[in-house]
Amino acid sequence: MKFRANDDWALNYGDDSANATLEQNGANIKIPSGGTYQIKLYLDKPDYTYSIEKLSLDGRALFYTDGQSLEIADISQFTEGYALTKYRNVTTAGAAGSHPTFVDNDFPLFRIEDVLLMKAEALLRSGGSSSEAAQLVNTVRQRAYGGGTAANVNAADLTLDFILDERARELYWEGHRRTDLVRFGKFSETSYLWPWKGGVKEGVSTSKHLDIFPIPASDRGANPNLQQNPGY
Predict the structure, then answer these.
(1) Whole-number CA gyration radius for the chain
(2) Per-residue pLDDT tens for 139-176?
(3) Which of 32, 121, 161, 197 stands 20 to 30 A from 7 (CA)?
């Protein structure tokens, strides 16, 4: 890369010595590897200088925002709220799936990251090694951040709330969230709210009986000895 003024190569700056000091018509500045960088140009000194820093971004943040609003006023409108692009209905060769609505992709039921986070949670709940728990969590986060350690957490910072959030970041759309919220005591009768919880835009606390699903009428019809779960 190089810097140029007014979108014109007639006045451009590069770095002949690779020392972060710019020279007019200087050499191209090498970017060491692919990724997302923060590049700053400093013009407040006689010698123009610059800095290049590779950002540590969570590769799991797969959001589609074009034409989408962050807030959801009407849950029936797909353009309200950010869409997620965790799954794509394409083959390994990039060809479209066989049906435009129903996907061909296999659904992940059990992943090593789930095992690592479960063990970290168990260690915290049982009073086990917090340093081991942090190592397990960091194994997951290092993969998510492209192999780097910039997003690692310390044992002292690791809490059950952090584990719950990390499971949301790692396992969203994999069928874990409701069960996780129930296990952490945040699904019902709690101040832990989210938009449209309980069918209300601002979110409301819900009844404890919703922690357990109702027994389907078809099952109770097939077996009259079954008793419906409380609250239904």
Answers:
(1) 25
(2) 999 999 888 888 899 999 999 999 999 999 999 999 99
(3) 32
Q: How many CB atoms lie within 10 A of CB 230?
A: 9
pLDDT on residue 116: 98
Q: Specify whether the CB–CB gap between 60 and 146 falls below 8 A.
A: no
Q: Are residues 192 and 212 in the same domain?
A: yes
* Ramachandran category for residue 203: left, alpha or beta (phi over 0 → left; psi -120 to 50 → alpha): left
Is the confidence at residue 34, as pLDDT, over 90?
A: no
- Both tokens of 113, joined, read 């990251």
Whether residues 130 and 165 share a domain: the answer is yes
Q: Which amino acid is at 203?
A: G
Structural domain including 24 reads 3-54
User: At CB < 8 A and 24+ separation, what contacts does 114-120 make?
Assistant: 114/167, 114/170, 114/171, 114/174, 114/176, 116/140, 117/163, 117/166, 117/167, 117/170, 117/171, 120/158, 120/163
Model confidence pLDDT, tens digit, residues 62-110 = 999 999 999 999 999 999 999 998 888 888 888 888 988 888 877 778 8
C-alpha dist (Å) from residue 53 to 50, 148, 232:
10, 14, 56
Verify that 121 and 180 share a domain, yes or no: yes
Same domain, 170 and 189: no
Residues 123, 163 within the same domain: yes
Q: How confident is the model at residue 197 (pLDDT cuts 50, 70, 90)?
A: very high
Q: How far apart are CA 49 and CA 54, in angstroms?
A: 17
- φ, ψ dihedrals at 49, nearest 5°: -130, 175
Residue 48: closest CA among 73, 12, 81: 12
The structural domain count of the chain equals: 4
